[in-house]
Amino acid sequence: MTSEVFNPLSRKPSPKTDSKELAKKGEWTKLVLIGIVVVYLALVLLVPAINVFVQAFDGGIEGFLETIRQREFVNALKLTLLMAAIAVPLNTVFGICAALALARKRFPGRTLLISIIDLPFSVSPIVAGLMIVLLYGRNGWFGPLLESAGIKIIFAIPGMLLATIFVTLPFVAREVLPVLEEMGPELEEAAKTLGASSWQVFWRVTLPSIRWGLLYGLILTNARAMGEFGAIVVVSGSIRGKTQTLPLFVEEAYKQYQTQSAYAAAVLLALLAVVTLVLKEILERKTAIKDAE
Rounded mean pLDDT of 219-238? Predict the structure, then answer.
């Protein structure tokens, strides 16, 4: 007979010990990942945002209020709001129509249309502005014809609107399209068989179903319209008091060493974004209350 020598190191750990060790490792992993995320957000978002507010109010409330009362500042704010007020509704209508056509129809060139809608995502905003200049500038394809008609596109509000509409084109369509595809046409077809008209189907079936995707598309479109810089700076000429939006005002003020004016404009842009998010939250809560009723 062979005698087995007892080796305490060869004893296998109990399942309870393994589970406790795995649980501890999992907790440490979670803490490390959370710490990395917090540090990253602090460095990229939180610290720069705090610095903007500190610099904007460096001269006190009086200095901040004096800055936002400047004529150039007020003109830039009005122009920024005008860009958003025109581009957002137009791209909302286009986005809904394009998403409905792509989700409910199969036609030749469908893939090409999706690629065209996604074009502003892949093209640099500066290139987009240059394309508009090459089309509507004085030496562009349509420039002489427009000049003879007395219509000014480049270095004027129409060119800025074209640039803003171009860069904000895809957001509503790309947010609504997946919702429509997931929803399917069954509810709409059922409503039609019950005698509902096309408008009734849209307002009472389609629109309530896509409202969250549409809402997020509107928020993204509005944020991009108010914060666009690259395309606008090419087509506007950044004429102070005439074709300067708030982002262009920030750049010009910073170049002129008007630090508080630049940061004050940045704070106002941030507050406009916050207002948009607050309105979104209010709308979501009201919609949730109506759905619960």
Answer: 91
